[in-house]
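Cross-posted from the bioinformatics board.
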Amino acid sequence: MVNTIINKQDRKFFISMAKFTILNLHMLPVFIDVPLDVCEAKDPPTGLYKLARAGKIKGFTGIDDQYEPPYSCEIVIQQKGSECMSPGDTAEIVISYLEKNEPDIS
Amino acid sequence: MSSVQALCQACSCAMFQNIECKLGFAKFCGINAVGLSRGRKSLLKPIMAKEDHGASLIDDGNPKCQGHQVNKPNGINQSTALSGKSLTEMSNIGNSMNILWHECPIQKLDRQQLLQQKGCVIWLTGLSGSGKSTLACALSRSLHSKGKLTYILDGDNIRHGLNRDLSFRAEDRSENIRRIGEVSKLLADAGVICIASLISPYRKDRDACRALLPEGDFIEVFIDVPLDVCEARDPKGLYKLARAGKIKGFTGIDDPYEPPYSCEIVLQQKGSECMSPSDTAEIVISYLEKNGYLLA
């Protein structure tokens, strides 16, 4: 499980590297599509958005450094408006995908 | 036809209302396809609130607004991070600022129970040509046949990817070992029996890797083969090049190897008689069994 902010260029590099150096690695991008204002409203638990807005942190993703949404990825978990799925529900979405796409291990 | 219906049924499930799946979803569900098209357009636009560009640095203006300043990793932060507990304050570790250790619900003990083995690092150290890679492979094969999950971190292989920015200067060799130590710590924490195979000639570097792991999780194996035997083997032709002066700073020739003062296992070759790889692997496996690594 890779849990990080990955921009387009980084992802291309990651995928190309994975293809050539690790056999049978399955990279499964999951885009957690939550609007910036919702993320900023949460600002948990580090208060970094607040610091970035105040100019104390520069180059903060979403504020003064851009996040590039994926052109195509296997799963998009989208939050519409203020309604929020539970972590258990979103995890089940990913697990369902994994179960349906079980690779052939023989 | 039935597969199409299955997909439609899946799409109608409440759980999938907010999902875009790369499974031909858009091809079979016309109505949803329209929605996805609109969604996709909004997905393409980069997200940024301000148009100002700048370096990713803390503004020095107001120290009170900064996270807890740590100039170097200290005992408190390191031990807290190792135990997986949440820090109440953000830390600045190394060159990273404003990072917070996130505790995971599944811990090391859970993984070890699942795998029925104890995660650890078996650190094979010895001269080039002493048989580290051969032992690593024999050990991995033997443990695999016992149903144990292993992973080999070969010093040369790691330079193909993770450490390809490193040269063989003294600082880069230390950095190579440090990074392999950090990766081996992650693998051990995952419950894997990690077999690190690299010369690692300096005690300081090996001791630094040992310090990364809890007591007992680092098993140092010294493959004690005389230099002349290693040089006679010369499986990679490097001794020949070093003797000819074409490689400088070669361990054993014009750069020293520091044998361990105390390590868990010494595999000593006396004279010219040579143990087989499987025999040496069995010595290590006996150690693992006696000390409870193979049954969590």
